[in-house]
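Here is one such tokenized protein:
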Amino acid sequence: MDLTVGAIIEGKVKSITNFGAFIALPENRTGMVHISEVANTYVNDIRQHLTEGQEVKVMVIAIDPTGKINLSIKRLESKPTQQRRNDRGDRGERTDRGERRGPSGDRRGERRYGASEPQPPAPPKSGDQAFEDLLKQFMTESDSKISSMRQYNDHRTKNRRR
């Protein structure tokens, strides 16, 4: 059996460590499922999800040049539907169009985006592309904030009396 990235195979949990589980694959090969690839939720203790000797279906996600096989269990599971959550609780009532209105009728939490403010995030894309976009956005915002802080500190340093 030739292992390729994306292949779905069955294996048996050989051993469990704090960072993942080693899976015995056909043809006396061994792969590893990292703790982050066990379930779609946060996994604090992998032993709550897997036991030694358990038969599992895994997907091959990478094979590095040294022959290490990276596996995933969570990529075979359907993703849970995420419910949108309001951090402030459900205060105020909603209008016909779903807008949130406070007791006085004003729009709660409404935000207007000017030219200097960041735009609201775009709807999520699939997989790695969404992560790359989020990382790019974070880096841009971070660079902007660091630049502003440097300008502020330079200004304070110049105006300080000695």
User: Anything to note?
Assistant: The longest strand covers residues 8-16. The CA atoms of residues 93 and 101 lie 5 Å apart. The mean pLDDT is 78. Residues 127-159 form the longest helix (33 residues).
